[in-house]
Specification:
Oligomer: single chain
Distance between the termini: 23 Å
CATH architecture of the largest domain: 3-Layer(aba) Sandwich
Radius of gyration: 21 Å
Number of strands: 15
Length: 275
């Protein structure tokens, strides 16, 4: 049973909200300002699991987190989709004309860049965490400074929301994964999604052959992400997510892909959060 979890950010961050929503009972949260720090928390057994954002419907894949999961041999045990609503906030009594600088996580700034084109007087500054900026504004009583963060952060740190839902696309969703240092015993009845990683030579038909195996075995490819192998030119690692109705179909496909691909690796088998 998971009793503690590492998150990137502090209480009030979107990772914290996922921790509150995903688990059936409250868990202890270890607040880390970087994803590397959050991974180290679980690797050193300070926490039982780590929550990591993996992709966003506006900004796309968070590539470094794929590498963190792979390189540290973590196992994905679950996923959670969170509707991300970014709000511009600051100390009470300020209008948007009073705000000269806005600090937030780079992903948050990227998702809200269209909004700030209307306010060229505002300087955008990348920071480590959305909620931590909100906390800093309140602690240091920073006037003329705004944060982009969650409504929970505005409530926790008593900031006033200046403008609501400023992300470019109003339906803005981020997929988070929950990972451990080892996988739990797989419940074949419950499991209907898997994250896989494999390598292929840069030659015609190699990827198509793998994709045909997935199709022939009734797997639905929901995600594919390629990463070049820096130490080996023209060779690629592929990270894929597949869903399936019958675990036996997945087992069959997995056994074939293990033969066809190089460095085949299961990053996790878990329940599809979309069902």
């Amino acid at each position: 049973m998971i009793k503690s979890v590492a998150i990137q950010g502090i209480k009030g961050s979107f990772h914290h909200i996922v921790a509150m929503q995903y688990f059936d009972v409250p868990v202890k949260v270890d607040e880390c300002l970087t994803f590397d720090g959050a991974v180290q928390s679980v690797l050193t057994h300070k926490t039982d699991a780590v929550i990591m954002a993996i992709e966003n419907s506006i900004a796309g894949s968070i590539i470094p987190n794929y590498a963190l999961i792979d390189n540290n041999h973590l196992q994905i045990i679950g996923e959670h989709y969170l509707d991300i609503q970014h709000h511009l906030m600051g100390l009470a009594g300020q209008s948007i004309e009073d705000i000269h600088e806005v600090y937030s996580h780079p992903m948050a700034l990227l998702q809200c860049k269209e909004f700030f084109k209307k306010y060229p007087h505002i300087k955008l500054v990348e920071d480590k965490d959305t909620a931590e900026v909100a906390q800093r504004i309140q602690q240091n009583q920073l006037k003329n400074v705004g944060a982009i963060a969650s409504r929970l952060a505005s409530e926790l740190f008593e900031l006033e929301i200046i403008s609501e839902s400023i992300q470019t696309i109003k339906h803005n969703e981020t997929r988070f994964v929950i990972a451990k240092t080892s996988s739990s015993e797989v419940d074949e009845v419950r499991v209907n999604k898997a994250s896989l990683k494999f390598e292929l030579d840069h030659k015609r038909g190699s990827l198509a052959s793998i994709l045909n195996v997935m199709s022939d075995c009734n797997l639905n490819l929901t995600k594919i992400q390629s990463l070049p192998k820096i130490e080996t030119p023209w060779k690629y690692s592929f990270f894929v997510d597949v869903t399936f109705e019958a675990y036996q179909d997945y087992q069959k496909a997995k056994s074939i892909m293990e033969i066809m691909a190089q460095d085949f690796k299961v990053l996790g088998e878990y329940k599809n959060a979309r069902q």
